Every structure is written in C-alpha cells, then in structure tokens.
User: Fold this.
Amino acid sequence: MAIDSNAAVQEFVDCLLTVLSAELDAPANRGIDAGPLLDGLRSGAEPAGEAHENGQPTPDNLPDAARTALAGPPAVRALTDAFIRIAPDIPWYQRPEPAFPDFMGGHANAFIVSPRGVEKRAKTIVGATWMAPGLQYPDHHHPPEELYIALSDGEWRQDEAPWRSPGLGGLVHNPGNVTHSMRSKSEPLLTIWCLWT
Assistant:
C-alpha cells in the first residue's frame, strides 16, 4: 500500500468525524445512536493485513463525481479532498450482481477502514461507492447499522418508501437489516458509508 495510514487515512478519518459530528447534531438526525461508530473511528488504527481479491482500478471519472462536493461547504470539501488523495491506494471492488450487467459495469466500491481495507478500527467499517449516471444499486440488507454521507447528488430508499435526496453532505441512516438502495441521477454518484456493530 503506497499511502501512510498514519497520515493520509487519519486525515480522512478526522474529516469524516467532523462531518458526522455536525450532521448527527442536526435535529433531524438526533435519534441516531452512532456513538459506537464515533468511538470506533476514534480508536487506534491497526494495519488491515488482508488484501481484497480481484481488486479493481480506481474509477476514471471519480473527479467528476467529486466535483460538486469539492465546491460544497468547507467540511464536505475537506472530507472529499482527503478521500480523493487516498482513493488511488485503497482496494476497490465490484459487488457481484450478474443479473444487473449495467450495474456491474458502472459501479465500484472501496474499503478504507476494514480488515480488507487500509486499516482496522474497533467494530467499524468505512468504505466508498462510486456509480455511473442513471444506475440503481440493487436492494440489499445487512445486520450492521449504516450511515451514508452523500458527496454528490443521489437518492436513497428504504423498503417501499419513496426515494429521497439527503443533499450534499447529508446523512442517510439504515437501521440493521432494513432493505435499502440508492441510485445515481444525471451525474455520477459518490458516497462514503460507515457500518458499525
């Protein structure tokens, strides 16, 4: 791994904590108990130790997806800039969905904080997703709670609820095991996601 996880990734985590702390303090998000996530992000980092198999290259048009965030509020700009600096050196992969060939060819996920990422932190996984314009991430669910931070214009849905846009830097909270999806619009989608137990 070409990056120094004690510097570049720590800067990314610090920026992530700044955005999360501000958003979780907003009235609409005060019911989210993300204390374990914040504690995990503040815990000491360890080398990940596992390489992700079948790694993918960094998406070519990642800067296009980040353009809106880089013109956004200062905390969102700082998070996006820190992410762009580490993006070429984190393990990217594709979610296997052979029934959705357009999705397969138009998305990439990356692990940052994870046993399969750059470093490990207590009970916390942080990653990113990039999607080409006009795609929907297939419905899925998982036991850990999850927060998305929108770094470009996109929409999220839970179960059969209507699609909604959280706005630049906004949060989407998925309780454990809720079925959820996201979709890009006319521009590529870029989002940071956090899972915790």
User: Anything to note?
Assistant: The chain has five helices and ten strands. The beta strands are 46-47, 92-93, 107-113, 119-120, 124-131, 145-150, 154-158, 171-174, 180-184, 189-196.
